[in-house]
Predict the structure.
Amino acid sequence: MSPSEQTLTRIAQLSTKLNAETEELNAVIRDLDKRLDATKIGVAVWSGRIVDVSSTVEWNDDEERDVTLSKGWELGYAKVDDQWALAVKPQQGTDEPDERSNIPVTTWVDAGEPIRLLKAARIVRVEAAPHLESVLELIAERAAKYIEDIEKAKRLA
């Protein structure tokens, strides 16, 4: 068997395993969506965690320097198409030098509407997977803060 045949055989084996693992990840996401929906929590959060980042360098004529432009997806939980779900929203980042250190820092801004995590490309779902627990924690923290704020307001009455 030639080296390319060996590699193709390995790719076929990896593909089978990757597809099976992806289906299991999808099942986890579906289960979390279902369990969160059952709580009726209705609390949107965005984690600040950007996944599937790609960058390009472009020349900025106005500033006469190269500027790094990045694209990615921010992980969170939000109402998408009238249904609460784990979600990602497109982000665009620009590197600007920090005023003190002059080290580039990426500033991210929304670049479109959120989509359900289950509808995102596999790379986005896979890169988001290790951060799902932190999104759940953010939801709990935000809900607790909302309750605290409501209780403060009620004391005014």
Summary: The radius of gyration is 21 Å.
